[in-house]
Amino acid sequence: MYVDVEQKNWDEILPFVTFAYNTAKQETTGFTPFYLLHGREAETTLDTMLPFCPNDFDDNNITKIAARAEESRQLARVHTLRAQDKDRRRYDSKHQMVSYAPGDLVWVYTSVRKSRSLRKTLKKVFRTVSGATPFISRDLRSTRF
Fold first, then answer.
1. Positive or negative, the Cα torsion across 23, 27, 33, 34?
2. pLDDT at residue 122 above 60?
3. pTM of whole model > 0.70?
4. How far is residue 4's CA from residue 73's CA, in Å, rounded to a whole number?
5. Rounded mean pLDDT, 115-120
6. Half-sphere exposure of 116 (CA within 13 A, CB side)
7. Are 72 and 31 in contact (CB under 8 A)?
8. Contact 145, 138 (CB under 8 A)
9. Where is the signal peptide (predicted)?
10. Phi, then psi, of 25 in degrees rounded to 5
11. Within its chain, how far is the Cα of 132 from the centroid?
12. Count of CB atoms within 10 A of residue 137's CB?
């Protein structure tokens, strides 16, 4: 199933994409989003074709399912924190801190995407201001910040 060339049938495919995303095991959490939300895996067409087992929904089993779902959410939080820490360490190992002295010339890159006519990126030369952080600068062609 694909979106057509004119990309006008995406709304017909969206439910299938959503189901695929919600039932795919996420690397960060180790669980599917559907499982973390509902405490059980989503039913597929194959599940509806198999015989139904009424013992799955007695009071004792529902309590176990709820407890298992909460344990899974806690485990997903731990996995997410580990993944964030791994990403932070990877970023920190490659990142180099840059500092600017007042008066240094810097390039500022701005991506504008609000409309098709404004999609060009803007690159300007700025001069850093006395006492400024790397995020505060002055346009060389104006007196405004």
1. positive
2. no
3. no
4. 38
5. 54
6. 0
7. yes
8. yes
9. none
10. -70, 125
11. 32
12. 20
Order of strands, sheet of 137-139, starting from the edge strand that comes earlier in the sequence: 105-110, 122-128, 137-139
Name the phi and psi angles at 38, rounded to 5.
-105, -10
Apex 33 CA angle, 90 and 81, nearest 5? 30
Output the 3-class SS for the chain: CCCCCCCCCHHHHHHHHHHHHHCCCCCCCCCCHHHHHHCCCCCCHHHHHCCCCHHHHCHHHHHHHHHHHHHHHHHHHHHHHHHHHHHHHHHHHHCCCCCCCCCCEEEEEECCCCCHHHCCCEEEEEEECCCCCCCCEEECCCCCC
Neighbour-count burial for 11-39, b at 16+ CB within 10 Å, e otherwise: eeeeeeeeeeeeeeebeebbbbbbbbeeb
Let me know: does 8 contact 59? Beta carbons within 8 Å.
no
Query: Please, are residues 128 and 101 in contact by the beta-carbon 8 Å criterion?
Result: yes
CA–CA gap between residue 72 and residue 79 (Å, rounded): 10
Query: What gap in Å lies between CA 49 and CA 46, rounded to an integer?
Result: 5
Q: How far apart are CA 32 and CA 21, in angstroms?
A: 8
pLDDT at residue 83, rounded to an integer? 93
**Residue positions counted in the chain:** 145
